Amino acid sequence: MSGSFGEMGNLLKQAQEMQRQLERVREEVKTLRVVGRAGGDAVRVEVDGDGAVLRVWITPDASSDARLLEELVLAAARDAQGRAALERQARMGKVMGGLPLPGFS
Questions:
Q1: Which three-class secondary structure state does DSSP give residue 16?
Q2: CATH classification for the domain delimited by 2-96, as one of 3.40.710.10, 3.60.130.10, 3.30.1310.10, 3.30.2160.10
């Protein structure tokens, strides 16, 4: 019977270690910066690890067409957010051993 208590203790220690690792990765993700691009670098958008837009760069010769410029900014933002999501998933996946983690897609 004492063997199963030892196994429970080991499982608890493993769960606590995983929790510590997840917290460390969450902190890393907060400081992550990712840049998305569109229009051959005419527009670049920087996001944090959660996908929040931090900065936008538009080259002076990007476009005189406001509608096209809007589409380029949107495309660059989506590119950056997609890259941030992939990086977030990769970092969390290392801790979780490939298991999906709710709220971190």
A1: helix
A2: 3.30.1310.10
d(CA 85, CA 100): 13
Instruction: List, for residues 62-73, the tens digit of each pLDDT value.
Output: 878 889 999 999
* Assigned token pair, 19: 């929790």
- Token pair 């510590």: residue: 20
Residue type, 96: M
Residue 38 DSSP SS3? strand
Q: Inter-axis angle of helices 66-96 and 2-31, to 10 degrees? A: 160
pTM above 0.90, yes or no: no
pLDDT of residue 100 exceeding 80: no
